[in-house]
Fold Branched-chain-amino-acid aminotransferase.
Amino acid sequence: MAKTRPEDLDWNNLGFKYHDLPFRWVDKFQDGKWQGGQLTSDSTITFNEAAEELHYGQEIFEGLKAYRRKDGGINLFRPDQNAKRMTKSAERLLMEPYPEDKFIEAVKQVVLANQEFVPPYGSGGTLYLRPFMMGTQSIVGVAPSETYEFRIYATPVGAYVKGLNPMPYVISDYDRAAPYGTGQAKTAGNYASSLMPSLLAKKAGFADALYLDPKEHKYIDEFGGANFFGITKDGQFQTPKSDSILPSITKHSILKIAADLGLDPIETKIPIDNIDQFAEAGAMGTAAVISPVGSLTYQDKKYSFGNEKEAGPITQKLYDTLTGIQFGDLEDKYNWTIKLS
Ligand code: PLP
Ligand code: COI
């Protein structure tokens, strides 16, 4: 695959796509230890046809971004939280955790090695980082791998959902994760099971599917790639409490921001039957940032939030505050950002 060059990129219209950049990180776990890791230009991975991850899905990943500041420097946003969550995912999938300090160091090295690909301030783009790990042992019986490969690639991206335009979503009849399953882990299987419901939603004219809790199908869980929030008509920020959703780093950050803004935030079970309590709703995640939900269709009934054309005032304020901190424009009172340069 041809390597992308900075001059090939239209910074203001990046989309959410893969580009083969000059450098990525690679480390291997073999003979009972991680080998130390290094940057490589090789974007191809080679493993045996019987490799664990191909058959039994021992694969976990993360997603985080590097942000170009106004002064030209580069920020990372809470990479320690991604390192921690990847350890938790590894434990759930019985994989060998990557040392968290090495994770952060590797993220920094990948960004610095590809720094000409961190989009300009004001373009709306960021450098998306995708740490991932897979079981590589050739194995036929179902058992955990004894060897692993850990990698981090980077790709410049624009918005996952373009602009702050509210989009229509639909409640799926399918589940993405099982009760007591792997919903809290960032593992490939959860995304594989979301592909069909997501396609069905898109074919029916929606931006994507929103899942209910897999046990009772009564409470809102999350989107295939982001957590859900709603702002009640009297201004409270609510986000689902559930054992089958991914603990979003964006969500945890917004809970703090919402408290600072006096929105009395809570994580609580959100009955789908109470959906009309919300004046605003949205999706939140690294890729999604904050994406307003214009409407939600459930059992053929459509619930609208605001005028469906522009983000509500609280959603806009949350977006401005979060991105203001990430890009270094606002005070970072919780020390969430790391200045890389
Ligand atoms: N939920 C799912 C299923 C996701 O894939 C993501 C994206 O990482 C999120 C939520 C949001 O998590 P974060 O804010 O840590 O990116
Ligand atoms: C992220 O926000 O980092 C994600 O992983 C969501 C999606 C692109 C799978």
Q: What stands out?
A: The pocket of 2-OXO-4-methylpentanoic acid (ligand 2) is lined by residues 63, 225, 285-287 (CB under 6 Å).
